[in-house]
Design a protein that fits this description.
Protein name: Pentacotripeptide-repeat region of PRORP domain-containing protein
Number of helices: 12
CATH class of the largest domain: Mainly Alpha
Helix content: over 70%
CATH topology of the largest domain: Serine Threonine Protein Phosphatase 5, Tetratricopeptide repeat
Oligomer: single chain
Keywords: Repeat
Radius of gyration: 21 Å
Largest sheet: none
Length: about 210
C-alpha cells in the first residue's frame, strides 16, 4: 500500500495523484503502526486534503491499539476543533479514546458525548452504549447506567450480552435489579457468557444467596 501511494505521489498526471480515499485506504492498511498512521494524516493535510471522520477514526484506533491514549485524546480534540462531524463508528472510537485516557476517563467520555449532542444529532449504537455503561461502572454511577439502559430500549437499540453483563456488575449489590436484568436477557434471547455468570454469582454471594 505504501509503495503504491509513493507511485501515485510521483505521478505526472494530476488525475493519478492520491486522494483522501487513497490516504484513508493506506492508513487502514498500516493500522498497527500508529506513528505511520499519524505521519500519513499529517501528510495528507500537507497535500491540501482535509481529513474526514473516517481518517480520524483510523488514526485514533491505531493510537488506541498502541496504547498511545494521550495522543488518541489529542486527535479527538483536534477533530472537534476542525469541525469534523463524527459518524456512528467514529463516535465509538472517540468514546473509547476518552474512556481509556489518563485520569478519570469516564468523565471525559460523558463530557465528549454531551458536547457532541449540543451540536449535532448523535447516533448511538449498542457498542456506544456499552462504552458509556462501562464509564458508569468505572465512575460509580448506577442511576445514570439505568437511564442509559432505558434510553437504549426507547431508541430501539437492542442490548447484547456486554450490555447486560456490565449492568449486572454495576448493580452487583442490588440482587433484585440483577434478577431483573437476568430475566430481561432471557426474554430477549441474549445468552449469558462466562463473564455474565461470574458477575451474577458475585451478586448472589453479596446478597447472601451463594448457597
Amino acid at each position: 500500500a505504501l509503495a503504491l501511494l509513493e507511485e501515485m505521489k510521483a505521478a505526472a498526471d494530476p488525475a493519478r495523484r492520491p486522494t483522501l480515499y487513497s490516504y484513508n485506504s493506506v492508513i487502514a492498511a498500516v493500522g498497527n503502526n500508529h506513528l505511520l498512521a499519524l505521519r500519513l494524516l499529517e501528510e495528507l493535510r500537507g497535500r491540501g486534503l482535509r481529513p474526514d471522520a473516517y481518517s480520524y477514526s483510523l488514526a485514533i484506533a491505531a493510537c488506541l491499539r498502541a496504547r498511545a491514549t494521550t495522543r488518541a485524546q489529542a486527535l479527538v480534540a483536534e477533530m472537534r476543533e476542525a469541525g469534523v462531524a463524527p459518524d456512528a463508528g467514529c463516535v465509538i472510537v472517540c468514546l473509547n479514546a476518552c474512556l481509556q485516557g489518563p485520569g478519570e476517563g469516564w468523565r471525559a467520555a460523558f463530557a465528549y458525548l454531551e458536547e457532541l449532542q449540543e451540536n449535532q444529532d448523535v447516533e448511538l449504537t449498542v457498542v456506544s452504549y456499552n462504552i458509556l455503561l462501562s464509564a458508569c461502572n468505572k465512575g460509580g454511577m448506577p442511576e445514570r447506567a439505568l437511564e442509559l439502559y432505558e434510553e437504549m430500549l426507547d431508541e430501539d437499540v437492542e442490548p447484547d450480552v456486554v450490555t447486560f453483563t456490565t449492568l449486572i456488575q454495576i448493580f452487583s449489590s442490588d440482587w433484585e435489579k440483577v434478577q431483573g436484568f437476568l430475566e430481561d436477557m432471557k426474554q430477549r434471547g441474549v445468552a449469558p457468557n462466562v463473564v455474565t455468570y461470574g458477575a451474577a454469582l458475585a451478586a448472589a454471594r453479596h446478597a447472601g444467596r451463594g448457597r
